[in-house]
Amino acid sequence: MRDSFQMVARIPCPVTTPKYFAVAGEVATMDLLRSFGLPIPEIYGYSPVQDNAAETEYIFMEFVKGICLSDLWFDLTEEDITSISRQLTELESKMMSITFPAGGNLYYTKDLEKVARSPGVPLEDERFCVGPDTRLSLWYGRRSQLDVDRGPYSSPEAALLKGAEKELAYLKQFGRPLLPFQRQRRESYQYRNQSPSNHMQNLDRYLLIASSLIPKDPALSQFRIRHPDPRLSNIFVSRSPDSSLHIVSLIDWQHTSILPMFLLAGTPERFQNYDDPITQSMTRPFAARRFGRPKRSSAKQREGTLPSPSNEELGDAYGRGDTPCPIVFDAEDIRQTMKLDEEPRGADEILEKCQNFIGVGPQGWVPVERYEEAMRRSKQLKEDTLAAAESEKERAEIAAHWPLDDMNKEEYM
Fold first, then answer.
1. How many domains does the chain have?
2. If both were cysteines, with which of 1, 91, 342, 385 could 5 make a disulfide (CB 3.0 to 4.6 Å apart)?
3. Please, what are the averages of pLDDT over each run of 10 residues along the chain (413 residues)?
């Protein structure tokens, strides 16, 4: 601007859904968390509707002077990484200490009153309330057309049930036989369309046991909030005069949900690591080693049965070890399910190796500077695989279902 003032104008992508709730929810979330002292850009103005001079939804926010952590990550020292990880942990601890009366998404009360079919659950600061959940899985594709309950969630059980109920409604209205979405898995299904009935049956089974998945510790069922995607590109840092790094901003709060704490727990995906030497060398817990082995000098050993982790350990955590399971599987169903689980798992591992060879991420993403080389490798890999096919039928199946080709996803939405 003319006076050197800088700000960020954020507009939603065309595929963003639900736009009104997504924009309104992001603004309210940022405002509330900033009021608790978290490093979040200040909001200058916003519109969750297109009825404005710009003819689009928008958010005007503070321009934060800092460096994107993804631009520095591979040049950081171990001391820098430790410091940033500790700071992020402290920020998450502060964030997750904020209590909420219900689950869903955060809104300004005035924004939700304009569009919601029912009032939100107010916070102590009545400018804010909890309303419908905006997680993409609840709205993706034709799911946005469904008139279903997406919150606010009055209980942890509701937070577990509503997603499955939504998906059942989607399958009943739009479901039809389709090839598996993950193309590398189609061979396991003999390249045949699969009926949605099996998935619907599994969702019905899930609904029978969902309430039993809630931990008995009430602290784990309290509604909390957490950044949905703390990837490196969403963290901005600056260096102090002594060269130490400090987190100065967390961005991209779209689709931030308020959920029971047990659904928010876990190491952020971008910081998770199972392959380093330290993790690989860790000793397995004694209890985990014991599962699957007979107890010595026990009646169970003489009977040929084994101790079950779900009864001995998981029962302690969830407090319902004496509740009969409402779902029963016969032996043949179990055998077929285990076989069907194993075959696609092998296909997934092969695809991961192919992606590593090409140099692309799980969703096919590749940096611009490596795009041409990745395309060359992908083309060569497909040609080599087709050349190794043992029949024309196999060659045609590979060509038609190659997992790295472009794909029209519309029928799966």
1. 3
2. 1
3. 84 91 98 97 97 95 94 92 94 96 98 90 97 95 95 96 97 95 90 94 95 94 95 92 93 96 82 60 42 37 39 50 81 88 87 88 80 92 92 93 88 88
